Amino acid sequence: MDSLPAAVVSALTAPSRWDDVVSAVADFDREVRACPTAEHVGAAARVVEVLSTPAHASLADGALGTHAVACAAWPPDPDALVAWLLWLQLDFPEAPEVRLAVYAGALGERGLGLYRERAVAKFGALPVIGFGETGRYDRARWALLRIMEELAEFTQDVDLQVLVLEKDLSSGWHYLQVATVLQEAGRSEDAIEWVHRGLAATGGRGAAARLVDLGAAEYVRLGRPAEAAELRRATDPVR
After folding, report:
1. Which of 96, 123, 192, 229 would bridge with 60, disulfide CB 3.0–4.6 Å?
2. CB 130 within 8 A of CB 170
3. What is the average pLDDT across 22-50?
């Protein structure tokens, strides 16, 4: 059953009765949590979709929680769930934020892999904002950034964090962000690489001094103090 619950349909036909909509959505949530069925998965998805509007956005987040409960009890096909979650976030301007933690069980290993694969593919098509450029952050870019940031946070995958950050390299501070993430992950060689990339891009301006400090610290950590000293000498005019 992918149709809306009758009570929600009735409440939505009278938009001036906000309390009726709130009550109908709450009643549906209690019904699902008390005794979820396979039919609730499709019905809850439809509730989320119709509430993902400026008028009802505040209710959509709760409805998404209802959908997650139904999916946890009756996991749908992972491919279909992945497609729906991405479609919701990319095609509905007022969609609630998807939290992968509450869908992890329903998605399973295969679903999470598909979600990552498709999200990375869509994100990869975005152009990189180069040094000194002014990026165009339209709704599609913001939505994909949100998807990728949530994915990176959920998986705690440093490579995903870097993938997100390296889409905007418009200033030296962005290079520093990437280098810092790698430094905190204990990936000194990669951090140093980004330090040198940032220094080449900035030409000694902006965040250059901070980049030098980070690079020198990582050279020392690797037991290469001579290279730390050389980095400071080579970039001394920026300090």
Report:
1. 96
2. yes
3. 94
In this structure, are residues 169 and 201 in contact, taking their beta carbons and an 8 Å threshold? Answer: yes
Asked whether 112 and 100 are in contact (CB, 8 A), the reply is yes
Q: 239 burial class (0-12, 13-18, 19+ CB within 10 angstroms)?
A: exposed
DSSP state of 221: H
Name which of 6-15, 66-75, 105-114, 224-233 the model is least confident about.
Answer: 6-15
How far is residue 173 CA from its own chain's centroid?
21
Q: Which residue has the tokens 């705690």?
A: 156
Nearest to 123 by CA among 97, 152, 158: 152
Instruction: State the residue for tokens 């103090």.
Output: 225
Of residues 103, 106, 15, 1, the one with CA closest to residue 59: 15
**pTM tops 0.85:** yes
| Tokens standing for residue 16 | 């001036």
Per-residue pLDDT tens for 3-16? 667 666 666 665 55
CA gap 199, 174 in Å, rounded: 12
CA distance 199 to 47: 51
Q: How far is 48 from 91, CA to CA, in rounded Å?
A: 13
The CA–CA distances, whole Å, from 144 to 2, 113, 120, 179, 191 equal: 27, 17, 9, 22, 25
Report helix angle 188-202 to 172-184, nearest 10.
170
Separation between Cα atoms, residue 60 and residue 48, nearest integer Å: 5
